[in-house]
Give the backbone structure.
Amino acid sequence: MAAPARGRAARPRTPTVAEHHAEWLGLLRPEGPFLTVPVLAEVLPHGLDVVPDEVRDRVRQGWVEVREAPDLLTPAWVELILTELLRYPAAARADGSTLPAAGASGLRPDLLLLGPQPAGGRAVRLHVYRRPAGTPLTRAVGDRPALVEQAAALCRDTGTPLALLTNGRHWVLAHARPGQPTGWATFDADLWLEEPLLLRAFATLLAMARVLAPPTTPDGGHSTSLAGLFARSAEALTQVTTTLGDQVRQAVELFVGELARLDRESHRTLLDGVSERDIYRGALTVLMRLVFLLYAEEQRLLPVADPLYAQAYAASTLYDQ
């Protein structure tokens, strides 16, 4: 067998499905608990759906036009996305004014998406809020909470965990269930053509079939619907939190045990005058701060790419050092 030619460039490695999902989630940068990569890789093993060329061309042309006259064309643009990209049929829509108002603001969704129930009938699957161009969706205005937080409160009150808010450019997908924090992410239409993965992710998650499907299967498990994906992800995050708690407790035990050994070797001078409670609290504080720093560095919230920070401050480089 002939040896491979020297200097031949190696073929680029094809990203795994998990890496594919991690890439668009990284571009999206959700706030709060959102969808997890393992759940996405399990439910979407072939990656994101492909947006047909003709639909992508309509989206491209529509966005070019709406940027020229956002106040005039935003309603038509929103309808284009709901109808042609997400394919929400008229038969699945209902007027949001039928819901009770949320809080003192009197907030109601503009549109409800209804999906079939396994036992018959239909149930609300998604609240849709359409706002004028430039309307803030994720930040408070005056003494009122952010619109996304108001929408999340109505999700909890009504038992419908999903809401979609838009001002034309920004499309905020929010998830909120009773007793749980709000998770949301903003899809920026201005980036859809620059970052095609974001357009595909938006179309995949909010596609008619995924939104309107029941959140549970006949046997009571989580379905592959959008609500089901969030429920699966919440369980996965709970498992991660439990595992992390166990690991931190084990690390505290190891750390305190090592301090006790060093104290014995120093003939009890190392921890002289320090109570057992203070030793435990100090060890726990140090380890939880390390966990915080490791997460922040992994999410690139701290300048880990800067050589000075990496060499002198980063927690993630301590092990190698």
Notes: The radius of gyration is 25 Å.
